[in-house]
Design a protein that fits this description.
Elements (H helix, E strand, L loop, with lengths): L2 H5 L12 H20 L8 H24 L4 H17 L10 H6 L2 H7 L4 H7 L2 H6 L1 H13 L2 H11 L5 H20 L4 H18 L6 H14 L3 H9 L2 H10 L9 H17 L3 H9 L2 H11 L3 H13 L5 H9 L3 H9 L12 H18 L2 H49 L6 H30 L4 H13 L4 H13 L7 H16 L2
Helix pairs in contact: 3-4, 7-11, 10-11, 10-12, 11-13, 12-13, 12-14, 13-16, 15-16, 16-19, 18-19, 19-22, 20-22, 21-22, 21-23, 22-24, 23-24, 23-25, 24-26, 26-27
């Protein structure tokens, strides 16, 4: 860490006017530091008592430095030497990061409090919270994280970042290291995400993401931390919504409507922002913000532009339209002529998806899910427009639907065969097939294509019950022609109805199951 950084570590009280003469002094001191580095002897092994000594020395030097800074705020020469002494001991303390089982000493000797007061120690904190080190000694890590949280570490880190100027390389690195501390802590203890977001982190991240600055590693890291904060957390999703974060995400993503990201890093940032948006849409109140922010129009344009963003835009639409909370978005999607965009993607899976790392199955799953959501949610004129699509061009959409039905049915039957074989083996070995094994097998079947197959069968029974006889006839005609069976479709739909509505109220589950079973009985 250079002395320039140290001199500026409290810009609000630190020196503003350093004379040229002082710059010369700094140069001399830096040279001295360089010489010291070259002469440094082998470090002694660290044990509990030498660690205590080191921490107490740090406390003393930190106190002395604070005292001199308060006494001579405009005269850096007076506290220069104490600054260097403090820097030396902070450098020595990096060795603590190799001994997580002694972290409790940092807490017992109240050093965490002093460290938080001196945010030049960002890179030391980053080493202390390195995720691999934390896992080496869970106990030491717990104690350290508790003390950091008690000291409102996130609020302090955010305040510190607000003071830093990213035009200066050292300060930009300071921001990167700060984000690393937050990521390490969040990975070790996911529960702290909501608290961190509340302590000013969410606001800072949104501000940094929308700042008019060229793309860099810090912007990428911000997008990553944002996506982590929003994972499985309704509190942070609500907070982002209240801070107009949906608009920020949509504005940032709109760049990729007509242009592909220019580097792999920029592509990663784009995907992080899409992931963040999908997470947010799990919360019903954000669906409305997405609708008002014209999110549907942006996603629809992305689907038409055929750029890299297309794959993720499809995923966002799926998240925005699913379930009863997606009804308004479904109607709006039809109003903005979204059917003209989605059906070509249903009829033909794009070849160019390899670039974005999306599988054919993922694409077909999102498209079928969007169509199923519309069939579930659309009323009156919009519903008629959707059903008319299936009758166009001699029912070509029904033919494609049935083609997908047999494709996924075969994939699921093969997976079922493998699983049956495994079950047979387990029984032969005298192993017990408990509920958790059964759940695991069910997840494997979903993954093999059962989920897409359920969506396809749902679309089949919905259009067969639409009152348009030509659709029902076509579905049954192709089933008979290819040796399919109504019984298989019914069985798949029963299984689907059983698994429906996780996290929803009991009455919703009941009503939805009944609705699906009525469709099945009339199929």
């Amino acid at each position: 860490m250079d002395v320039g950084e140290l001199l500026n570590y409290q810009p609000d009280r630190g020196a503003k006017h350093i004379t040229e003469e002082l710059a010369g002094d700094k140069k001399k001191i830096l040279e001295k530091l360089m010489d010291q580095d070259e002469e440094e002897p082998e470090a002694e092994p660290v044990d509990e008592s030498s660690m205590k000594k080191m921490i107490l020395t740090f406390e003393k030097r930190s106190y002395k430095n604070q005292e001199l800074r308060i006494k001579f705020p405009d005269n850096p020469e007076k506290f220069m030497e104490s600054e260097l002494d403090l820097n030396d001991i902070i450098q020595e303390m990096h060795v603590i990061a190799t001994m997580p089982d002694l972290y409790h000493l940092l807490v017992e000797l109240n050093a965490v409090h002093s460290l938080l007061g001196l945010l030049t120690v960002v890179d030391l904190l980053q080493e202390l919270t390195d995720i691999d080190t934390l896992h080496e000694s869970e106990e030491g890590a717990e104690v350290l994280i508790d003390a950091l949280l008690e000291g409102q570490v996130v609020a302090l880190l955010v305040q510190n970042m607000e003071r830093l100027d990213e035009q200066v390389k050292e300060e930009a690195d300071g921001i990167y290291n700060t984000l690393a501390i937050i990521e390490n802590m969040a990975e070790f203890r996911p529960g702290l995400c909501a608290e961190a977001a509340q302590q000013g982190l969410m606001q800072w991240l949104l501000k940094r993401i929308k700042a008019k600055m060229p793309f860099d590693a810090n912007k990428l890291y911000c997008s990553e931390i944002l996506a982590i904060l929003l994972q499985n957390n309704d509190n942070t999703r609500e907070l982002l919504g209240e801070m107009d974060g949906i608009d920020v995400l949509l504005q940032q993503l709109s760049v990729f409507k007509r242009h592909n990201p220019s580097t792999a890093e920029e592509q990663e940032m784009m995907e992080n922002l899409f992931d963040a948006l999908c997470s947010c849409l799990m919360l019903p109140s954000n669906r409305d913000r997405f609708l008002r922010g014209e999110g549907l129009q942006l996603m629809n344009l992305m689907l038409r532009e055929k750029k890299m963003s297309r794959t993720s835009a499809l995923k966002v639409l799926d998240h925005g339209m699913i379930g009863p909370e997606g009804a308004d978005n479904c109607h709006k999607f039809v109003d903005i002529l979204g059917l003209r965009t989605i059906f070509p993607l249903f009829m033909k899976t794009p070849k160019k998806m390899k670039k974005t790392g999306t599988s054919e199955k993922e694409h077909e799953e999102h498209v079928c899910s969007i169509i199923a959501s519309m069939l579930r949610n659309l009323k009156s004129q919009q519903r008629s427009r959707l059903l008319n699509k299936f009758t166009e061009n001699d029912c070509e959409k029904v033919d494609r639907l049935m083609e997908l039905h047999f494709k996924y049915l075969e994939a699921v039957q093969q997976a079922d065969k493998r699983i049956e074989g495994e079950k047979h083996e387990m029984v032969r070995r005298g192993e017990i097939l408990d509920d958790s094994m059964e759940d695991e097998f069910y997840l494997r079947r979903l993954d093999a294509g059962l989920f897409v197959l359920q969506l396809i069968c749902y679309i089949m029974v919905e259009i067969s019950n639409s009152g348009i006889s030509q659709l029902q006839q076509r579905v049954h005609q192709i089933l008979n022609l290819r040796g399919g069976s109504v019984k298989v479709v019914r069985h798949i739909m029963r299984e689907y109805a059983e698994s429906i509505g996780d996290g929803k109220s009991d009455e919703f589950k009941e009503a939805e199951r009944k609705r699906i079973m009525d469709l099945v009985d009339n199929f």
